[in-house]
């Protein structure tokens, strides 16, 4: 017969994983908050100076690639095969294109639309279901895709901004209507950040497929970021030359806080934070849980930066987007209601492998 002390010890052991995950969840929230803070500082810098997006991102990727190479040292340890290096270099091209599109989308659409559009990568789950999935789940995923598109449409119409909803245009006061329509965009402008979100999901999927082990993933990420920096170099130089020869004064893309926050929080720290979320919390980027964390951080930063923000409209768009992501990427629920976050491309998690600790 077990004593009360043994029973209490057994309960403590059973509940210890939840307590172990609590610090990791706090780290995940703080890391995403710092990353979103860097996004708002970047947007503020673009709005005030009109600096070149490509030049600014290129200057941020240079120290990021150097730090990744210094931390991971991909040339040491077990030699990497061509089947791993070549896809990582190709992934660098996708990463470079993602940064260009995302930066231009941030500059033209604002931080709320640019950040939420990053979750458009969940449409890869719909595509994989249509190609490889069961026919019974296709309509469910298509419904999720429709919800996501509705969310992006409402965002493009300014539902997350201003003090009225676009559905109230016919009965809105003209004074408020003029002030509000400054935030209205067409779906054409939203295509740029949406494409950036799809490319972001694609580069994550390629990195996950090429590297099954955690330490290998970090070594290949250093190669990917370095490759992206190299591919951005000619584009940045062309942007600089064409800007200087057009007669316009080219302002060097440097602002201390925007540069440091984007480099440290937006590129370097967020990679390790997302790795912790995937390995320990089983939370991929394109998931409702990740969106909930990002949404809370967005609300705080919109208030701090005193942006033209509509909380009800933002909540409606976020709920639609979260529902769409859930339906587009969710796995089959077991009879006991168990659920795991899926891979955005295949809808299936890879087998869990033993992960090595993060570098100190």
Automatic annotation (TrEMBL):
Residues that span the membrane, as ranges: 52-72, 84-102, 114-133, 145-164, 184-202, 222-242, 254-273, 285-305, 311-331
Keywords (A to Z) from UniProt: Membrane, Transmembrane, Transmembrane helix
Bilayer topology annotation: Multi-pass membrane protein
Location in the cell: Membrane
PANTHER family listed in its UniProt record: OS07G0283200 PROTEIN, ZINC TRANSPORTER
Stated name of the protein: ZINC TRANSPORTER
Source species: Salix purpurea
Organismal lineage: Eukaryota, Viridiplantae, Streptophyta, Embryophyta, Tracheophyta
